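check these tokens.
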Amino acid sequence: MTSCVPTSHCPRPLQLLSAAAMCVMVSSVNAAIPDASGVIHGCYLKNNGILRVIDSANDACKTNETPLNWNQTGPQGTTGLQGPPGRDAVSLWAHVKINYSNGAPSLADKKGAVSVAHSTSLKNGTPLKGFFDVVFNQNVTACAAAVSAEPGASFSAKAIILERELYQDPPFSQNTRFVVVVFDEDESFIDENFNIIVTC
């Protein structure tokens, strides 16, 4: 066995280890997998099916290998078909007036509204103060509605849209009706004029 005294011509063991480590570090730094475009490059060995990943900047497939490339993010899909145009919005509305002598509501002005009446109690069929069924000439299940007090009203009233209830045996289809409830600041139900606007 040939021995070697550490000199400039015969590096020390630690110098050899350091050089090897530097080679590994340089290889790791220079490797670009995936590459700058996000593509992973590989080589498929035809005779046994072995696949290896390569740094395409420093390596290439051999003659008996088939190049295989794939993208980490995937390619951009094709643009979908243009959807059909949406239908124009339909606005329905009603201005409801109260006859203060008997409390009966009526349609003073309207577009698409068919009728208005007090909602009735399921228990005894009596009219419910502050509750109104506003019926329209089309299905309003998918429509949005807003309610407001009559402009210039001398009271502070709130009005909300209830879901189409099933508490009343329907003289009309439930799908064409909004139930409106009107109440004052004391949360007392009141019969007062109001406007309802429905957008479909």
User: Anything to note?
Assistant: The chain has two domains: 34-72, 91-199.
